[in-house]
Protein backbone atom coordinates (compact mmCIF):
# COMPACT_ATOMS: atom_id res chain seq x y z
CA UNK A 1 0.00 0.00 0.00
CA UNK A 2 1.38 3.41 -0.97
CA UNK A 3 2.61 5.81 1.68
CA UNK A 4 0.55 8.99 1.82
CA UNK A 5 0.85 12.48 3.22
CA UNK A 6 -2.62 12.96 4.69
CA UNK A 7 -2.54 16.55 5.87
CA UNK A 8 -0.46 19.62 6.66
CA UNK A 9 -0.90 22.07 9.52
CA UNK A 10 0.77 25.46 9.85
CA UNK A 11 1.32 28.04 12.57
CA UNK A 12 3.00 31.43 12.87
CA UNK A 13 3.72 33.69 15.87
CA UNK A 14 1.32 36.52 16.56
CA UNK A 15 3.89 39.20 15.79
CA UNK A 16 3.06 40.30 12.23
CA UNK A 17 5.58 42.72 10.70
CA UNK A 18 5.15 44.88 7.61
CA UNK A 19 8.23 44.81 5.38
CA UNK A 20 8.25 48.57 4.91
CA UNK A 21 8.34 49.23 8.65
CA UNK A 22 11.14 46.72 9.09
CA UNK A 23 13.11 48.40 6.31
CA UNK A 24 12.82 51.77 8.01
CA UNK A 25 13.71 50.23 11.38
CA UNK A 26 16.96 48.73 10.10
CA UNK A 27 17.84 51.82 8.06
CA UNK A 28 17.48 54.04 11.16
CA UNK A 29 19.89 52.08 13.36
CA UNK A 30 22.96 53.88 14.74
CA UNK A 31 26.09 53.56 12.62
CA UNK A 32 24.21 52.98 9.36
CA UNK A 33 25.80 55.19 6.69
CA UNK A 34 24.23 56.35 3.42
CA UNK A 35 25.71 53.47 1.40
CA UNK A 36 24.42 50.85 3.84
CA UNK A 37 21.03 52.55 3.92
CA UNK A 38 20.80 52.16 0.14
CA UNK A 39 21.66 48.46 0.44
CA UNK A 40 19.01 48.00 3.13
CA UNK A 41 16.38 49.79 1.03
CA UNK A 42 17.17 47.71 -2.05
CA UNK A 43 17.25 44.40 -0.15
CA UNK A 44 13.92 44.99 1.58
CA UNK A 45 12.09 46.64 -1.33
CA UNK A 46 13.09 43.96 -3.87
CA UNK A 47 12.55 40.96 -1.58
CA UNK A 48 9.10 40.04 -2.91
CA UNK A 49 7.86 40.16 0.70
CA UNK A 50 5.00 42.31 2.03
CA UNK A 51 4.86 40.98 5.57
CA UNK A 52 6.40 38.37 7.87
CA UNK A 53 5.93 37.00 11.35
CA UNK A 54 8.40 37.04 14.23
CA UNK A 55 8.37 35.48 17.67
CA UNK A 56 10.16 38.52 19.10
CA UNK A 57 9.04 42.13 19.30
CA UNK A 58 11.40 44.15 17.14
CA UNK A 59 9.46 47.38 16.66
CA UNK A 60 7.76 47.62 20.05
CA UNK A 61 9.94 45.58 22.39
CA UNK A 62 8.56 46.15 25.88
CA UNK A 63 10.79 43.38 27.26
CA UNK A 64 14.01 45.17 26.35
CA UNK A 65 15.51 41.90 25.18
CA UNK A 66 16.16 42.88 21.57
CA UNK A 67 15.70 46.66 21.41
CA UNK A 68 16.17 49.45 23.93
CA UNK A 69 13.74 52.24 24.81
CA UNK A 70 15.00 54.37 21.88
CA UNK A 71 14.47 51.58 19.36
CA UNK A 72 18.13 50.64 19.03
CA UNK A 73 18.62 46.99 18.09
CA UNK A 74 20.59 45.25 20.83
CA UNK A 75 23.00 42.30 20.53
CA UNK A 76 21.84 39.60 22.97
CA UNK A 77 24.21 36.70 23.47
CA UNK A 78 23.64 33.41 21.72
CA UNK A 79 22.59 31.93 25.06
CA UNK A 80 19.96 34.62 25.54
CA UNK A 81 18.62 34.11 22.03
CA UNK A 82 18.50 30.36 22.49
CA UNK A 83 16.52 30.75 25.70
CA UNK A 84 13.84 32.54 23.69
CA UNK A 85 13.92 29.66 21.18
CA UNK A 86 13.38 27.20 24.02
CA UNK A 87 10.39 29.23 25.22
CA UNK A 88 8.77 30.01 21.86
CA UNK A 89 9.54 27.11 19.50
CA UNK A 90 7.71 24.25 21.29
CA UNK A 91 4.29 25.97 21.21
CA UNK A 92 4.71 26.57 17.45
CA UNK A 93 5.67 22.94 16.84
CA UNK A 94 2.63 21.86 18.84
CA UNK A 95 0.15 24.24 17.16
CA UNK A 96 1.13 23.09 13.66
CA UNK A 97 1.11 19.42 14.70
CA UNK A 98 -2.29 19.64 16.36
CA UNK A 99 -3.77 21.18 13.22
CA UNK A 100 -2.23 18.50 11.01
CA UNK A 101 -3.55 15.68 13.21
CA UNK A 102 -7.03 17.21 13.31
CA UNK A 103 -7.13 17.61 9.52
CA UNK A 104 -6.08 13.97 9.10
CA UNK A 105 -8.62 12.77 11.69
CA UNK A 106 -5.74 11.04 13.51
CA UNK A 107 -5.85 10.76 17.29
CA UNK A 108 -2.63 11.54 19.21
CA UNK A 109 -2.38 7.99 20.54
CA UNK A 110 -2.26 6.66 16.96
CA UNK A 111 1.07 8.38 16.20
CA UNK A 112 3.93 5.85 16.13
CA UNK A 113 6.88 8.06 15.10
CA UNK A 114 7.84 11.74 15.41
CA UNK A 115 10.41 13.55 13.25
CA UNK A 116 11.25 17.20 13.88
CA UNK A 117 13.52 19.60 12.00
CA UNK A 118 14.93 23.00 12.95
CA UNK A 119 18.11 25.02 12.47
CA UNK A 120 17.50 28.15 14.55
CA UNK A 121 17.96 26.80 18.09
CA UNK A 122 18.84 23.75 20.15
CA UNK A 123 17.95 22.21 23.49
CA UNK A 124 17.63 18.75 25.00
CA UNK A 125 15.35 16.96 25.58
CA UNK A 126 14.52 18.45 22.19
CA UNK A 127 11.50 19.46 20.10
CA UNK A 128 10.63 15.86 19.26
CA UNK A 129 10.44 15.07 22.99
CA UNK A 130 8.33 18.15 23.67
CA UNK A 131 5.84 17.15 20.96
CA UNK A 132 5.34 13.78 22.62
CA UNK A 133 4.80 15.45 25.97
CA UNK A 134 2.76 18.47 24.83
CA UNK A 135 0.42 16.52 22.53
CA UNK A 136 -0.04 13.61 24.91
CA UNK A 137 1.45 11.05 22.53
CA UNK A 138 2.33 7.58 23.76
CA UNK A 139 5.65 7.49 25.59
CA UNK A 140 6.77 4.64 23.33
CA UNK A 141 6.73 6.81 20.19
CA UNK A 142 10.01 6.65 18.27
CA UNK A 143 11.61 10.10 18.01
CA UNK A 144 14.11 11.69 15.62
CA UNK A 145 15.39 15.25 15.21
CA UNK A 146 17.12 16.73 12.14
CA UNK A 147 19.17 19.74 13.16
CA UNK A 148 20.99 22.42 11.18
CA UNK A 149 20.00 21.14 7.72
CA UNK A 150 18.65 24.56 6.82
CA UNK A 151 15.83 25.45 4.44
CA UNK A 152 15.75 22.03 2.73
CA UNK A 153 15.22 19.97 5.89
CA UNK A 154 11.50 19.29 5.37
CA UNK A 155 12.19 16.93 2.47
CA UNK A 156 14.78 14.75 4.26
CA UNK A 157 12.28 14.59 7.14
CA UNK A 158 9.47 13.51 4.80
CA UNK A 159 11.81 11.06 3.08
CA UNK A 160 12.62 9.46 6.42
CA UNK A 161 8.90 9.31 7.24
CA UNK A 162 8.18 7.57 3.94
CA UNK A 163 10.89 5.00 4.52
CA UNK A 164 9.53 4.27 7.98
CA UNK A 165 6.01 3.83 6.60
CA UNK A 166 7.21 1.70 3.69
CA UNK A 167 8.92 -0.61 6.19
CA UNK A 168 6.31 -0.59 8.97
CA UNK A 169 2.77 -1.24 7.78
CA UNK A 170 0.28 1.00 9.55
CA UNK A 171 2.90 3.42 10.88
CA UNK A 172 1.73 6.99 11.49
CA UNK A 173 4.58 9.51 11.37
CA UNK A 174 4.22 13.09 12.54
CA UNK A 175 6.74 15.39 10.81
CA UNK A 176 7.14 18.92 12.19
CA UNK A 177 9.41 21.83 11.25
CA UNK A 178 9.66 25.10 13.19
CA UNK A 179 12.06 28.00 12.77
CA UNK A 180 12.59 31.25 14.69
CA UNK A 181 14.92 32.99 12.27
CA UNK A 182 14.18 36.39 13.80
CA UNK A 183 16.14 35.46 16.92
CA UNK A 184 19.37 35.93 14.99
CA UNK A 185 18.60 39.30 13.44
CA UNK A 186 21.09 42.09 14.13
CA UNK A 187 22.07 45.49 12.79
CA UNK A 188 24.94 45.21 10.31
CA UNK A 189 26.79 46.96 7.50
CA UNK A 190 27.48 43.59 5.86
CA UNK A 191 25.43 43.05 2.69
CA UNK A 192 24.98 39.30 3.30
CA UNK A 193 23.66 39.90 6.81
CA UNK A 194 21.35 42.62 5.49
CA UNK A 195 19.87 40.21 2.94
CA UNK A 196 19.29 37.65 5.71
CA UNK A 197 17.50 40.26 7.80
CA UNK A 198 15.36 41.18 4.79
CA UNK A 199 14.02 37.72 3.95
CA UNK A 200 13.98 35.36 6.94
CA UNK A 201 10.90 34.91 9.14
CA UNK A 202 9.34 32.63 11.76
CA UNK A 203 6.83 29.83 11.33
CA UNK A 204 6.05 26.14 11.78
CA UNK A 205 4.47 23.41 9.69
CA UNK A 206 3.65 19.76 10.30
CA UNK A 207 2.56 16.81 8.17
CA UNK A 208 0.96 13.44 8.90
CA UNK A 209 2.41 10.55 6.88
CA UNK A 210 1.08 6.99 6.96
CA UNK A 211 0.96 3.70 5.12
CA UNK A 212 -2.50 3.06 6.57
CA UNK A 213 -5.87 4.03 5.16
CA UNK A 214 -7.01 7.69 5.33
CA UNK A 215 -10.03 8.27 7.57
CA UNK A 216 -12.12 10.66 5.54
CA UNK A 217 -12.64 12.12 2.09
CA UNK A 218 -10.06 14.89 1.84
CA UNK A 219 -7.33 15.43 -0.70
CA UNK A 220 -4.00 13.77 0.04
CA UNK A 221 -0.55 13.46 -1.48
CA UNK A 222 0.70 10.03 -2.44
CA UNK A 223 4.44 10.10 -1.85
CA UNK A 224 6.88 9.21 -4.61
CA UNK A 225 10.63 9.45 -5.04
CA UNK A 226 13.05 11.81 -3.32
CA UNK A 227 16.46 12.93 -4.58
CA UNK A 228 19.41 14.81 -3.13
CA UNK A 229 22.12 16.58 -5.13
CA UNK A 230 24.99 18.83 -4.13
CA UNK A 231 26.05 21.53 -6.55
CA UNK A 232 29.58 21.77 -7.97
CA UNK A 233 30.16 24.98 -6.02
CA UNK A 234 28.39 26.92 -3.29
CA UNK A 235 29.60 25.35 -0.05
CA UNK A 236 30.70 28.77 1.20
CA UNK A 237 27.76 30.68 -0.31
CA UNK A 238 25.03 29.41 2.02
CA UNK A 239 26.05 28.38 5.50
CA UNK A 240 25.42 28.91 9.19
CA UNK A 241 27.85 29.29 12.07
CA UNK A 242 27.33 29.86 15.77
CA UNK A 243 28.62 33.26 16.85
CA UNK A 244 28.69 35.01 20.20
CA UNK A 245 25.67 37.15 19.23
CA UNK A 246 23.48 34.52 17.57
CA UNK A 247 23.84 32.35 14.50
CA UNK A 248 25.78 33.91 11.63
CA UNK A 249 24.06 33.34 8.29
CA UNK A 250 26.01 33.59 5.04
CA UNK A 251 23.85 34.05 1.96
CA UNK A 252 25.92 35.45 -0.90
CA UNK A 253 24.63 36.95 -4.17
CA UNK A 254 26.01 33.86 -5.92
CA UNK A 255 23.23 31.61 -4.59
CA UNK A 256 20.59 32.50 -7.22
CA UNK A 257 23.17 32.13 -10.00
CA UNK A 258 24.27 28.68 -8.77
CA UNK A 259 20.67 27.53 -8.33
CA UNK A 260 19.75 28.79 -11.78
CA UNK A 261 22.62 26.93 -13.39
CA UNK A 262 22.19 23.63 -11.51
CA UNK A 263 18.42 23.25 -11.15
CA UNK A 264 17.50 22.02 -14.63
CA UNK A 265 19.70 18.88 -14.71
CA UNK A 266 18.74 18.06 -11.10
CA UNK A 267 15.03 18.23 -11.92
CA UNK A 268 15.42 16.20 -15.12
CA UNK A 269 17.30 13.49 -13.20
CA UNK A 270 14.61 13.46 -10.52
CA UNK A 271 11.82 13.05 -13.07
CA UNK A 272 13.59 10.25 -14.93
CA UNK A 273 13.77 9.40 -18.61
CA UNK A 274 10.03 8.80 -19.06
CA UNK A 275 8.81 12.15 -17.69
CA UNK A 276 9.48 15.77 -18.60
CA UNK A 277 9.16 19.13 -16.87
CA UNK A 278 5.95 19.72 -18.83
CA UNK A 279 4.41 16.65 -17.15
CA UNK A 280 4.46 18.34 -13.72
CA UNK A 281 1.08 19.84 -12.85
CA UNK A 282 2.03 21.75 -9.68
CA UNK A 283 5.31 23.08 -8.30
CA UNK A 284 6.36 23.64 -4.69
CA UNK A 285 9.61 25.59 -5.01
CA UNK A 286 11.20 26.79 -1.78
CA UNK A 287 11.27 30.61 -1.93
CA UNK A 288 14.80 31.19 -0.68
CA UNK A 289 14.27 34.68 -2.04
CA UNK A 290 12.73 36.43 -5.03
CA UNK A 291 15.93 36.09 -7.07
CA UNK A 292 16.03 32.34 -6.41
CA UNK A 293 12.44 31.94 -7.64
CA UNK A 294 13.19 34.07 -10.71
CA UNK A 295 16.18 31.89 -11.61
CA UNK A 296 14.25 28.65 -11.12
CA UNK A 297 11.37 29.90 -13.24
CA UNK A 298 13.70 31.02 -16.01
CA UNK A 299 15.88 27.89 -16.02
CA UNK A 300 12.93 25.48 -16.05
CA UNK A 301 10.82 27.70 -18.35
CA UNK A 302 7.90 27.64 -15.94
CA UNK A 303 4.81 29.81 -16.17
CA UNK A 304 3.48 32.31 -13.66
CA UNK A 305 0.85 29.83 -12.50
CA UNK A 306 3.57 27.27 -11.74
CA UNK A 307 5.27 29.73 -9.40
CA UNK A 308 2.16 31.32 -7.93
CA UNK A 309 2.02 29.37 -4.67
CA UNK A 310 5.73 29.85 -3.97
CA UNK A 311 5.58 33.58 -4.66
CA UNK A 312 2.42 34.02 -2.56
CA UNK A 313 3.97 32.28 0.46
CA UNK A 314 7.10 34.41 0.10
CA UNK A 315 4.99 37.56 -0.16
CA UNK A 316 2.84 36.87 2.89
CA UNK A 317 5.19 34.92 5.18
CA UNK A 318 8.78 35.43 4.00
CA UNK A 319 11.37 32.66 4.09
CA UNK A 320 10.64 30.54 7.17
CA UNK A 321 13.50 28.16 6.37
CA UNK A 322 12.51 24.48 6.68
CA UNK A 323 8.80 25.13 7.30
CA UNK A 324 8.26 27.17 4.12
CA UNK A 325 7.91 24.44 1.51
CA UNK A 326 5.25 22.73 3.64
CA UNK A 327 3.23 25.97 3.58
CA UNK A 328 3.33 25.72 -0.22
CA UNK A 329 2.32 22.05 -0.23
CA UNK A 330 -0.59 23.00 2.05
CA UNK A 331 -1.83 25.34 -0.69
CA UNK A 332 -1.46 22.58 -3.29
CA UNK A 333 -3.42 20.15 -1.11
CA UNK A 334 -6.26 22.66 -0.94
CA UNK A 335 -6.20 23.51 -4.66
CA UNK A 336 -9.36 21.89 -6.04
CA UNK A 337 -8.54 23.16 -9.54
CA UNK A 338 -5.94 20.37 -9.78
CA UNK A 339 -7.25 17.21 -11.37
CA UNK A 340 -7.15 13.83 -9.68
CA UNK A 341 -3.68 12.21 -9.93
CA UNK A 342 -2.02 15.59 -10.58
CA UNK A 343 1.77 15.40 -10.53
CA UNK A 344 3.46 17.58 -7.88
CA UNK A 345 7.20 18.30 -7.66
CA UNK A 346 8.80 19.93 -4.64
CA UNK A 347 12.23 21.56 -4.80
CA UNK A 348 14.15 22.98 -1.84
CA UNK A 349 17.63 24.37 -1.30
CA UNK A 350 19.94 24.06 1.68
CA UNK A 351 23.53 24.63 2.76
CA UNK A 352 26.05 22.94 0.55
CA UNK A 353 24.50 24.01 -1.80
CA UNK A 354 22.12 21.07 -1.59
CA UNK A 355 19.09 20.62 -3.84
CA UNK A 356 16.36 18.33 -2.48
CA UNK A 357 13.44 17.16 -4.61
CA UNK A 358 10.26 15.34 -3.65
CA UNK A 359 7.57 13.89 -5.92
CA UNK A 360 3.92 13.58 -5.00
CA UNK A 361 0.65 12.69 -6.68
CA UNK A 362 -2.34 14.71 -5.49
CA UNK A 363 -5.29 12.37 -4.95
CA UNK A 364 -8.64 14.12 -4.97
CA UNK A 365 -11.18 13.29 -2.25
CA UNK A 366 -13.48 10.40 -3.03
Content-based structural category: alpha+beta
Report the radius of gyration as a whole number of Å: 20 Å
CATH superfamily annotation of the domain at 220-363: Thiolase/Chalcone synthase
Any idea what the CATH architecture of the domain at 220-363 is? 3-Layer(aba) Sandwich
Q: What amount of the residues lies in strands?
A: 25-35%
Average pLDDT level: 94
Spatial arrangement of strands, main beta sheet: 5-4-6-7-1-8-13-12-11
Account of the 3D structure:
It is a single chain. The protein is of the alpha+beta class. It has a domain of 144 residues: Thiolase/Chalcone synthase (Peroxisomal Thiolase, Chain A, domain 1, 3-Layer(aba) Sandwich), CATH 3.40.47.10. The chain is built from ten helices and 13 strands. Strands 5-4-6-7-1-8-13-12-11 form a nine-stranded mixed sheet, sandwiched between helices. A two-stranded antiparallel ribbon has the order 2-3. Helix 4 links the parallel strand 4 and strand 5. Helix 3 packs across helix 4. The radius of gyration is 20 Å and the shape is globular. The model has no long low-confidence stretch (mean pLDDT 94).
Which helices and strands occur, and which strands form pairs?
Elements: E1 4-11, E2 15-18, H1 19-27, H2 34-45, E3 51-54, H3 78-104, E4 113-118, H4 127-135, E5 142-147, H5 154-167, E6 172-180, H6 191-199, E7 202-210, E8 220-230, E9 238-243, E10 246-251, H7 254-271, E11 282-285, H8 290-300, H9 304-317, H10 324-333, E12 342-350, E13 354-363
Parallel strand pairs: 4-5, 4-6, 11-12
Antiparallel strand pairs: 1-7, 1-8, 2-3, 6-7, 8-13, 9-10, 12-13
Helix pairs in contact: 1-2, 2-6, 3-4, 7-8, 9-10
